[in-house]
């Protein structure tokens, strides 16, 4: 590859970004565009080998905002199409942008079998726990009892946990980030690109219109986020808390929070 160093601008298309103001997708897009120059440099991958594949949903607009090759496939089939792309040209760095409805409902089998086959894809699974593009129906990750347009009395189904699905399908790489943590998302994407095999990044994403603050109590509230989330980095201690003073121990078959002296 030439000595030219890519910048995020090299991966930004000239298309108007048409997600709702405040949508978490904007932050994820920013993280990807910041990550790709570093990935290109680290893996000696020229710009013309990056390819994005999407299915259907708000996340699937992603390919239009990337100045790369792209393929907008059909509902639930992004992982199948991406498998074909990677198989046809293994040199490509293939990325899949998909949602919880797209890959965990109609596309569920394609998702788990791509993981089982360990195809060298980088999947970014946008999880807002709702169908956004089709206007607010419950999805496979919606919380039990969630009231939506298709569950006016509350859902009766327990939600999928994407990480458990990946592990159950013998996945070799799984990471989770949240839309507002752009730097963390970028780190996850760089690590995913370096991994040989199927990489799945679950991006907890906020839909301000149909499921606002769905991740708020769990991970998005700035006041409590440090106390409720552990950022895992290879070789580093699993510490959390506002001052990184807390850790976890396994006691009597349960996790217990302890203060590290």
Low-confidence stretches: none
Question: By helix and strand content, what is the structural category?
Answer: alpha/beta
Total number of strands: 8
Report the principal-axis shape.
Answer: globular
User: What is the succession of H and E elements?
Assistant: HEEHEHHEHEHEHHEE
For the record, give the distance between the C-alpha atoms at the N and C termini, rounded to a whole number: 49 Å
Helix fraction by DSSP (H/I, runs of at least 4):
25-40%
Report the major sheet. Answer: 6 strands, parallel
Radius of gyration: 18 Å
If strands are numbered along the chain, what order do they take across the biggest sheet? Answer: 2-1-3-4-6-5
Total helices: the number is: 8
Approximately what portion of the residues adopt beta-strand conformation?
15-25%
- Average pLDDT for all residues: 95
Structure description:
With 261 residues, the protein is α/β, with parallel strands linked by helices. Helix content is 29%, strand content 17%. It contains eight helices and eight strands. A six-stranded parallel β-sheet has the order 2-1-3-4-6-5, sandwiched between helices. It has a two-stranded antiparallel ribbon with strand order 7-8. A hairpin with a 2-residue loop joins strand 7 and strand 8. Helix 1 (25-42) crosses helix 6 and helix 3 packs across helix 4 (108-117). The radius of gyration is 18 Å and the shape is globular. The mean pLDDT is 95.
Question: What descriptors fit this protein?
Answer:
single chain, 261 residues, alpha/beta, 6-stranded parallel beta sheet, two-stranded antiparallel sheet, 8 helices, 29% helix
